[in-house]
């Protein structure tokens, strides 16, 4: 054996990080299965008959290939929420944005590389409200030989928070769409599929149990897969050390209550340092606006090894439903790690300065109950879904599908957080905004009080962004930028725009394709509270989106 070859083998053994990244293959079968919860049985659409669905494991820079086969009567797509999808926009997953849906009996292969990403993300259906039951975790471990930038935990636990309706969820949204009224709220929240004790169903059981051993530290990978509810997560008697959000490391800080919006993830270290016993875990909704929601608190338990049978449960207070200060305490503590290994590359000069108002309105509807329907809008434009994928239309230059005149600013400025204007109507359209490759973008996301102010967890596909500022009231372009954090702002893919307030995000448009920006409250997305960017190709193959795969679904 040649000396150089022996040295190469030895190097690969001693330095496994030098070994090539892996290609990881998964098969997802979309099937219906009966589940009994809240003393009622119903059939739900799942991946592999699981609720929540299977966890997708990989390492940073691995390539992931997932064959999704549709065995149900609904059209389906899967979105890999928070995966950058660099040059793989055909695998992003939102129906009619980057692909036509996978029709019954058909398959599609999603193929993407986890370039420069590590941490917790999630996957979920991205058509209608199917993500209520089609969702699961994505766990991206660091490259081999690269440690976490925090003390190594003894064990890791995935905790997926979700909602459950007794009724068929597709029927719920279809009925709401026909009536023009808000949809019925969910009947309970779940922790890893467990509803916990609920009124009127004594046979439900005690809910999810998190088993721990004294002295050990656990990394909790917490995911909010709920459809419409922002949530508080709290464990009696224990503080949590936050080390990551949305698969981006943060400066560690301790807190007793996590605030997490739909689509967001939070990694927290939990040290089992209390007396042996049984401790309540509370999962409760947040809403600081006059809007209906599922107001039930779900109770799970943390149980130490060696706890005797039927011990007393150690309780904790539940945050008030409108506990806005608790949300701020969490959000304002988030800072990017900004270390030499994980720098915060915040854009300091801006090519596109955008101002987007977010809210709801009322449009005429002849077939609806009151002759009108509730709609969502950005800059007074309610997004109209096309009938073919926007990325296809852009790639093949198909005319008549969309326009590129999405307004960079509100068409008519008004007192956004003051009294509602007299005209509540919006404009309808499939209007996109063009960005040249590598241009830098700043967006002011401004909530409005039209009908009612509300918190909007906003997700951008295809990018992470930096949250450089937030505040209450109307954004002041002269004063507020002076308070921006351009040094170590938190890096996310989903941000909560506060009720009656604003946030400012910045990102670099370095990923060609068509990318959706939308409120991750599914009720608002359904109403049209979304828009999309076209990011043009750059120069050469490393800055150009390849043609679509041969199995791209047809509409």
UniProtKB/TrEMBL annotation:
Enzyme type, top EC level: oxidoreductase
GO terms under biological process: lignin catabolic process
GO MF term (any one): hydroquinone:oxygen oxidoreductase activity
Residues in Plastocyanin-like domain copies: 32-143, 156-306, 405-538
Keywords annotated in UniProt: Apoplast, Copper, Glycoprotein, Lignin degradation, Metal-binding, Oxidoreductase, Repeat, Secreted, Signal
Enzyme Commission number, as recorded: 1.10.3.2
GO cellular component, one term: apoplast
Catalyzed reactions: 4 hydroquinone + O2 = 4 benzosemiquinone + 2 H2O
Function: Lignin degradation and detoxification of lignin-derived products.
Protein name according to UniProt: Laccase
The species this protein was found in: Quercus rubra (Northern red oak)
């Amino acid at each position: 054996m040649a000396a150089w070859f022996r040295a190469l083998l030895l190097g690969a053994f001693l330095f496994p990080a030098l070994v090539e990244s892996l290609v990881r293959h998964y098969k997802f079968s979309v099937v219906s299965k009966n589940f009994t919860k809240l003393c009622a049985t119903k059939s739900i659409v799942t991946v592999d008959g699981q609720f929540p669905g299977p966890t997708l494991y990989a390492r940073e820079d691995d390539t992931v290939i997932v064959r999704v086969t549709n065995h149900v009567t609904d059209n389906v797509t899967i979105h890999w929420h928070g995966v950058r999808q660099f040059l793989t926009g055909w695998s992003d997953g939102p129906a009619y944005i980057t692909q036509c849906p996978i029709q019954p009996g058909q398959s599609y292969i999603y193929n993407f590389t986890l370039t420069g990403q590590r941490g917790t993300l999630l996957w979920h259906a991205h058509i209608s409200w199917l993500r209520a039951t089609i969702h699961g975790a994505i766990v991206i471990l660091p490259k081999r030989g690269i440690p976490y930038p925090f003390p190594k935990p003894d064990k890791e636990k995935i905790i997926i928070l979700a909602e459950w309706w007794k009724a068929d969820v597709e029927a719920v949204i279809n009925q709401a769409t026909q009536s023009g009224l808000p949809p019925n709220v969910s009947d309970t929240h779940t922790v890893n599929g467990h509803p916990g004790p609920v009124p009127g169903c004594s046979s439900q059981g005690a809910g999810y149990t998190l088993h721990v051993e004294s002295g050990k530290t656990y990394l909790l990978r917490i995911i909010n897969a709920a459809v419409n509810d922002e949530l508080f997560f709290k464990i009696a008697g224990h503080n949590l050390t936050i080390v990551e959000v949305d698969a981006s490391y943060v400066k560690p800080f301790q807190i007793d209550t996590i605030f997490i919006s739909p689509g967001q993830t939070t990694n927290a270290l939990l040290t089992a340092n209390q007396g042996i016993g049984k401790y309540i875990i509370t999962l409760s909704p947040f809403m600081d606006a006059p809007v209906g929601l599922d107001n039930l608190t779900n109770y799970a338990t943390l149980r130490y090894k060696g706890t005797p049978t039927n011990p007393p449960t150690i309780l904790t207070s539940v945050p008030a439903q409108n506990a806005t200060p608790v949300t701020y305490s969490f959000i304002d503590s988030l800072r990017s790690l900004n270390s030499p290994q994980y720098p915060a590359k915040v854009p300091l000069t801006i090519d596109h300065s955008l101002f987007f108002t977010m809210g709801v309105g009322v449009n005429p509807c002849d077939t609806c109950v009151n002759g009108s329907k509730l709609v969502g809008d950005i800059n007074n434009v309610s997004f109209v879904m096309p009938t073919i994928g926007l990325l296809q239309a852009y790639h093949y230059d198909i005319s008549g599908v969309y326009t590129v005149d999405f307004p960079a600013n509100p068409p008519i400025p008004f007192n956004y957080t003051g009294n509602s204007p007299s005209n509540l109507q919006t404009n309808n359209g499939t209007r996109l905004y063009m960005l040249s490759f590598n241009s830098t973008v700043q967006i002011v996301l401004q909530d409005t009080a039209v009908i009612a102010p509300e918190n909007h967890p906003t997700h951008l596909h295809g990018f992470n962004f930096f949250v450089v500022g937030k505040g209450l009231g109307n954004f002041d372009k002269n004063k507020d930028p002076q308070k921006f954090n351009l040094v170590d702002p938190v890096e996310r893919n989903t941000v909560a725009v506060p009720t009656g307030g604003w946030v400012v995000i910045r990102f670099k448009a370095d990923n060609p394709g068509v990318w959706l920006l939308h409120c991750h409250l599914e009720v608002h997305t359904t109403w049209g509270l979304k828009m999309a960017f076209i990011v043009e190709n750059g120069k050469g193959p490393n800055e150009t989106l390849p043609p679509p795969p041969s199995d791209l679904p047809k509409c």
